[in-house]
């Protein structure tokens, strides 16, 4: 496990993020590779639940407002869409 993955897990626990928020954080991380199609599919499936939809969109909105060194968050939110 990399240090960034470990740090991400600690933040998830400390901030008490839900399963949906954790998946969005993982999909829009600063890692140089994109999210897996299975992860994107899981996020898309979560949006059919009203509560999970609000959590996903809240985290997406938070990521869209990132700037500076977190430019990958914005990039991945904008260009990592699940393909049907």
UniProtKB/TrEMBL annotation:
UniProt GO BP: endocytosis
Domain ENTH stretches: 12-84
Name of one Pfam family that matches: ENTH
InterPro entries assigned to the protein according to its UniProt record, in alphabetical order: ENTH, ENTH_VHS
GO cellular component: clathrin vesicle coat; endosome; plasma membrane
Molecular functions (GO terms): clathrin binding; phospholipid binding
Protein name as catalogued: ENTH domain-containing protein
Species, as recorded: Xiphophorus couchianus (Monterrey platyfish)
């Amino acid at each position: 496990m990399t240090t960034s993955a470990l740090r991400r897990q600690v933040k998830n626990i400390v901030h008490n993020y839900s399963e949906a928020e954790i998946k969005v954080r993982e999909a829009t991380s600063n890692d140089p590779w994109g999210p897996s199609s299975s992860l994107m599919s899981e996020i898309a499936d979560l949006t059919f639940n009203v509560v999970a939809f609000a959590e996903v969109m809240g985290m997406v909105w938070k990521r869209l407002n990132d700037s500076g060194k977190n430019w990958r968050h914005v990039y991945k939110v904008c260009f990592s869409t699940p393909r049907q």
